[in-house]
TrEMBL record:
Lineage: superkingdom: Bacteria
Protein's UniProt name: MATE family efflux transporter
Membrane topology field: Multi-pass membrane protein
PANTHER family noted in UniProt: MULTIDRUG RESISTANCE PROTEIN YPNP-RELATED
Transmembrane domains' residue ranges: 105-129, 141-163, 170-194, 200-224, 267-286, 293-315
One Pfam family from the record: MatE
Locations listed in the record: Cell membrane
InterPro entries, A to Z: MATE_fam (IPR002528), Membrane_Transporter-Flippase (IPR052031)
Organism whose genome encodes this protein: Ramlibacter terrae
Length: 323
């Protein structure tokens, strides 16, 4: 039996025929819980790095807008677009097309991660933002590790978007919760060291982020490759097609404008504040974190709604099912 011949999954059936509000709440609840775990990481990292001193906090504050740009583009712009195209194909009953779209989206994410590795890891960028001395050293140490592992961040968020498109909100949320749980243990260990583990400082926080995201990505990839899955990442042939890339990018590129504008404005403001000294940058970095905490909660509901709407559009039933 081919992927296209499989019957709609229970999750797809609920999105197509279930009552709107209960179905939305059922999908959004694990999403919000999973993405709320991301907010814990944002605050926790600020606390851990803050214990290293003002230079460390200021250095990470300079990198934060680019780190959040990567997160929002991978999870929101490309991840959300992937949810939409996969859900729409499954709503139309074409699991083979959903798999092709998922595979191409993952490759787009890996290509985008390479851009971040090439452009955002260099200390020269943070020097151009006004970093000097110890602040520049800390920014360079954190960024070089974080963006060297950018592929892990992009992969886990695109794979989570694919899982949401299939209706697997719990799997996507579970990956985020597992990432957070691992990071809460690994981050302080790598930053401060213990026993045979040497203290790595801010580089340890970045290494923990990369490692935990990589492990979560492998878990999601395994989940999306099981037998009987409507979308199988491994076990289905990979045939690259320009038209499929264009379908993914047609949604992802316009969706990237807002993260660029919001994070770009914070980066400019951070560079401006840098003219007032290390403590000012460190304080601004602390103040900027609560703003980032609001985004994942809203995205939790939005991504569930994206999956529902796209599935119904794919099934050619734009009118809502029973209310």
């Amino acid at each position: 039996m081919t992927a296209a011949a499989l019957a709609p999954s229970p999750a797809t059936q609920r999105m197509l025929h279930g009552p709107v509000l209960p179905t939305l709440l059922r999908l959004a609840t694990p999403n919000v819980l999973g993405l709320f775990a991301n907010t814990i990481v944002i605050g926790f990292d600020g606390y851990i790095v803050g214990r290293l001193g003002a230079d460390a906090l200021a250095g990470v504050a300079l990198v934060l807008p680019l780190a959040m740009l990567m997160l929002q583009m991978s999870a929101g712009s490309l991840g959300g677009s992937t949810t939409a195209v996969v859900a729409r194909a499954l709503g139309a009953g074409d699991a083979a097309e959903a798999t092709r779209l998922a595979q191409h989206a993952l490759l787009v994410g890996l290509a985008a991660s390479l851009l971040f590795t090439l452009l955002a890891a260099s200390p020269a960028l943070y020097a151009a933002m006004g970093a000097r001395g110890g602040v520049l050293a800390q920014a360079g140490s954190y960024a070089s590790v974080l963006f060297a592992g950018a592929s892990a961040v992009w992969s886990v968020n695109v794979l989570a978007g694919i899982a949401r498109g299939t209706g697997g909100m719990a799997a996507a949320a579970g990956a985020l919760v597992a990432t957070t749980a691992m990071h809460l243990v690994l981050c302080p260990l790598l930053v401060f060291g213990a026993g045979p583990v040497p203290p790595l400082g801010v580089a340890g926080a970045a290494l923990s982020t990369v490692t935990c995201n990589a492990l979560a990505a492998l878990g999601l990839l395994a989940w999306l490759s099981r037998g009987g899955q409507r979308v199988r990442m491994i076990g289905s042939p990979w045939r690259l097609q320009a038209t499929v890339f264009r379908r993914v990018l047609a949604l992802a590129l316009p969706s990237s404008v807002n993260p660029f504008l919001s994070n770009g404005s914070i980066a400019v403001a951070t560079a401006y504040v840098g003219g007032f000294g290390t403590l000012a940058v460190a304080a601004y970095g602390i103040a900027a974190r609560p703003e980032y905490i609001l985004v994942p909660i809203a995205f939790g509901v939005g991504s569930a709604l994206t999956a529902m709407v796209a599935t119904n559009i794919g099934a050619r039933q734009p009118n809502a099912p029973s209310a």
